[in-house]
Amino acid sequence: MKHSRIGARVAVGIAALAVAGLSPSRAAAQDTTYTKPVADSAAGDVDRIDKDAIDALEKMGAYLRTLKAFSVHALVTTEDVMENGQKVQRSSVVDLTASRPDKMRVEIADQRQPRTLLYDGKTFTMWAPRVKYYATTNAPSTIIALIDTLDERFDIDVPGADLFRWGTAESDVANITDATDLGPAAINGVTCEQYAFRQAGLDWQIWIQRGDFPLPLKLVLTTTTDEARPQHSSTYTWNLAPSYNDKAFVFDPPSDAKKITFADVAAARAAEKKAGGYK
Length: 279
Description:
The protein is an alpha+beta fold.
């Protein structure tokens, strides 16, 4: 699991759109019970890495890489910790459509900060319809390269980025210190297997659909470096035969749209470091 950061920071890349906060929305009912008990490490020497759990991640990643096109609908809940230690939840809905290797569209729906991310293989655009601002930049030739560039250069997280990283060097499976198969479960009536993992600063769980289509159906991240242990969760509904055309990935600005520029965070850090003010 590459990212230990909780939630998406996609708006950070545009200074004018950096206002935080997502409004609540109704999430689908879920049944996440499991039947296999977790091994008790106090009962003796218990293997902290369950090979079946690691194999399940690799199988899921290999399957996801076979998908040439897909759409996924995600119900996302993120916990923020206020200065007084109280946790508050933010909710959003994310709809992602991808056509490998070089097309992606992400719609992020929430009442305070809706936005759309579009990538057509040559340019990346972020559009904020509420304030009518958009920013565009030249983009690399693949989705995964775009995700890395946005993260490193503009400090932008793409919602669903891990769906493209599973099973690659970017997934950092070697950093997992605990892996457990918790047994069968169900997400929205779909039978799956639940797994729990640990790595430095992060506990996480994933529910993977059983059978010939090992899709991730739910992901829960818990930050362990904060004593409040805030969580970020996503529940996924998949469409493996989406309908779209190339225009879906191209931004056509409305007449009243205002163009601004992304804040190049990497360049700012490099300049500050050169000036001796960055540690």
